[in-house]
Specification:
It is a single chain. With about 150 residues, the protein is an all-alpha fold. The protein has one domain (about 5-150). The protein has six helices and no strands. It has helices at about 5-55, 60-70, 75-105, 110-120, 125-135, 140-150. Helix 1 crosses helix 2 (about 60-70), helix 1 (about 5-55) runs antiparallel to helix 3 and helix 3 (about 75-105) packs antiparallel against helix 4 (about 110-120).
Length: about 150
């Protein structure tokens, strides 16, 4: 075997190694993407569950939420603050799911499932009060989604 034949064989083996390396990297990227999406789902669900947990573990907060949704003006100053913070958390959880859907490849059906809850909250008198006062604290594209809900209701 000549030096040229050995060189050609080395180039061939090197090319095969590069192809296998690229295939391996593509598989790793795909696996990492799925892991990131699963993590995004977990974080989004955890945030929503934290809000729900605070409600069912605290009867006073549940009362404030119920009263605040229908008559926010009837709440005293402390209760209105708690209601505002609770709605902020509810909408932040929704915003998180919206962002994960838009930017991290989370299934759009996950976002669509949350729309029912968000519509119920944002179209209530308390939700409208909150959104009018605090909407600028949310990301622009999420604000546009919520504004669209209010326009059509």
């Amino acid at each position: 075997m000549t030096i040229f034949e050995l060189g050609a064989l080395g180039e061939f083996v090197g090319a095969i190694a590069v192809v296998f390396t690229l295939i391996y990297l593509a598989l790793q990227i795909r696996q990492n993407t799925k892991a990131v999406q699963a993590s995004a789902i977990d974080v989004s669900i955890s945030r929503a569950n934290d809000v729900r947990e605070s409600m069912y573990e605290n009867a006073d907060l549940s009362r404030i939420y119920i009263q605040g949704l229908s008559h926010p003006d009837a709440l005293d100053e402390e209760s209105r603050l708690r209601f505002r913070l609770l709605l902020h958390n509810v909408l932040l959880a929704g915003s998180n799911i919206y962002s994960q859907t838009s930017f991290a490849g989370l299934s759009s059906s996950t976002w669509e499932a949350q729309l029912t809850l968000l519509k119920r909250v944002i179209t209530s008198p308390g939700g409208q009060w909150f959104w009018k006062e605090y909407r600028l604290e949310f990301e622009k594209t999420f604000r546009e989604q919520m504004d669209k809900i209010l326009e059509t209701s």
